[in-house]
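User: I'm new to structure prediction. If I give you an amino acid sequence, what do you actually give back? Let's try with this one:
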Amino acid sequence: MNYRRLGKTGLKVSEISLGSWMTYGGYVARENAVKSIDKAYELGVNFFDTANVYERGEAEKVVGETLRKYPRESYVLTTKVFWPMGDGPNDRGLSRKHVMEQCHASLKRLGTDYVDIYYAHRFDKETPIEETLRAMDDLVRQGKVLYVGVSEWTATQISEGLAVADKYLLDRIVVNQPIYNMFERYIEKEVIPLSEEKGIGQVVFSPLAQGVLAGRYKRGEKPDPESRLVKTGWDLINDQKLEKVEKLQEIAGSLDITLAQLAIAWILRQPNVASALVGASRPEQVEENMKAAGITLSTSVIDQIEVILQA
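Assistant: Good question. You get back a string of structure tokens that encode the predicted 3D arrangement of the chain. For your 311 residues, that looks like this:
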């Protein structure tokens, strides 16, 4: 496993990390979830991601309980706050009340005194950004959070957050967690250039486009109705994309790697990306995806991929 600095911080994270969205605590059997985390740790992954909203806290419990057997200083643990955790008017968003209460609840479920990164899971238009960042800063000063992050914030929103933090001497945003894969590249235009300038690293999710870039879906074949992609975004897939996947598969075959490994290596070509978050429903998937670590794609291969993607 290779490790990269998170933005301009001194924190080093494995360039492939393990996420728990729609998996641990619900979609994936607990036994497989535990085995997947253990396999990732065994292979050198030191970066584990979860969120309070994933299965309403159950994912945090599985991740926390599984990692508890390992030295706390040996891994980087993250969680998030924003999405509803109840039916009340203050059970959502980035108000000081919700941020503080959810951090404490997450720490309890995770069974730890602190998280390494605490993300604002989305931008909250109803809460002043100063209020949110002051709450985050207080958590940092209390030692319950080490680094502040955001997820799916636009370049404008990130800029506003940095300006507010600098104005009031609050802890700065050092990491962004956006979607990024061969079919979702919006961060390349504004978010990455801004982040490179300001010292913010990217920890990207959905590198395999929910299995599409792992070759799980074929043109003309009906997918499993119980698959995650069907439940969350099958309408985003079409024959044109699946045709591109077939051509990408040919490139992967010529390099003697899997399509998933090619897709992850393509993401890691970006120096601003600190880590690619992968999910796994069984340890074998973890092992296969981790082999992408250290794969360097040549300029000619990257150019070939770009021709396919732009067609």
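You can read the tokens as a compact description of the fold. Here is one thing that stands out. Residues 202 and 296 are 19 Å apart (CA to CA).
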